[in-house]
Amino acid sequence: MLGSPTKQEEDATPVAARPECPVDTLGKVELPCLGAESHSAPDAPTVVNVWAWWCGPCRQELPLFDDLAESHPEWNVVGVHADTNAANGAALLNELGVQLPSFQDDHNTFAGTYGLPGVVPITVVMDKNQQIVQTFPAVFASKAELETAVKEALSR
After folding, report:
1. pLDDT per position in the chain (156 positions), as tens?
2. Element (H, E) at 60
3. What torsion do the CA atoms of 151, 60, 132, 153 make, to the nearest 10 degrees?
4. Contact criterion met (CB below 8 Å) for 41 and 13
5. Domains plus CATH for the chain?
6. Residue 78 to residue 65: CA distance in whole angstroms
7. SS3 of 122, please?
8. How many CB atoms lie within 10 A of CB 113?
9. Which residues are in the Thioredoxin domain (predicted)?
């Protein structure tokens, strides 16, 4: 199409700066941090939101994860942007004012490694040893609903 960016041009789009990712890996999966670096945090449960920039329900849900992270500093709360266009992912987070550190997953490596459904959003709860304890292939409507689900998953 005339005027549409080529795949090479899309990949060359600069990615906006984003917050650092609090962990180096998500279980067995190592991904680059979207717009920042990763560092190793103390062993803590990890809550992962798998999302994509084009996903309407993700757009509604992403701010809940920011609120969850603020309320629960004892958890690593991160996102996994499951799309090849990292620049659009970082831009969406910045547009929404969401500070959620996110990993970039160009090839759906995270979902593929753990056999997750091919839909977004998906929430994954991992224990402090980075083992998955529960997945939620659904949209959370409130922070309270999300928080309750995570607490119940971690209490198992």
Report:
1. 334 344 444 456 789 889 999 988 899 899 999 988 887 766 899 999 999 999 999 999 999 999 999 999 999 999 999 999 999 999 999 999 999 999 999 999 999 999 999 888 999 999 999 999 999 999 999 999 999 999 999 998
2. helix 56-71
3. 20
4. no
5. 46-155 (3.40.30.10)
6. 8
7. strand
8. 12
9. 1-155
Q: How far apart are the C-alpha atoms of 118 and 111, rounded to whole Å?
A: 7
- Spell out the SS3 assignment of 10-58: HHHCCCCCCCCECCCCECCECCCECCCCECCCCCCCEEEEEECCCCHHH
Query: Distance between CA atoms of 129 and 31, rounded to whole angstroms?
Result: 18
* Distance, CA of 14 to CA of 90 (rounded, Å): 10
Alpha carbons 117 and 82: distance in angstroms, whole number:
12
Note the pLDDT of residue 1: 34
Element (H, E) at 9: helix 7-12
Residues with Cβ < 8 Å from 145, sequence gap 6 or more? none
- Say if residues 83 and 104 touch (Cβ distance below 8 Å): no
Q: How many CB atoms lie within 10 A of CB 131?
A: 9
pLDDT at 11: 54
User: How many residues does the structure list for the chain?
Assistant: 156
Both tokens of residue 97?
A: 């004012």
